[in-house]
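Case study 2.
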Amino acid sequence: MKAAKKHHALRRKIERLERKLVRQHQKLAELKRELPLQPVKDYLLAGRKGRVRLSSLFGAKSDLIIVHSMGRSCRYCTMWADSFNGLLPHLEDRAAFVVVSPDTPAVQHAFAQGRGWRFPFYSDAGSSFSKDLGFLPEPDEPCPGVSTFVKRGRKIYRVASAPFGPYDPFCSVWHFFALLADGAEEWAPRFRYMAQQMDTAR
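Prediction:
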């Protein structure tokens, strides 16, 4: 009887915490949107067809989502980016969506093709874009995350930002692993897994 009561109490506690976490995520997003808009320069980035301005990445949209990636050398950023493919139609229905990394456009294109990525990639190499937005806290040590922007007339503003890392709300893998008996344990992402390697060898 005691065990049943304890189990029921624990389930109630878990359900309350889950509801609270959802409300906290909503409140956090609301608070970020209440911050004053941050004016940003019309940065010059590099694409496969040459240099492009930040303003051009909006296309016909007034909102833009930019993922700050560490590039092809990062297994974690690669796993995050793998998940964007399925979300892309939904994301692009609401806002323009772009991934930026320090890799050259040629390296980005080759790596994206190998992964089957369909979203646009641009390079910020030689630009102060990532540093100015807080995603290059130390020289040559980028950190991943996301920034959102809004364009009003000819002016561009950053609306909000968030860092990427295990158990953030932008990568579902960790949340699935968290429900396993031993959690994620010492698991870390790879560029390829055994099943993929075997398929390639056939």
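The two ends are 56 Å apart (CA to CA).
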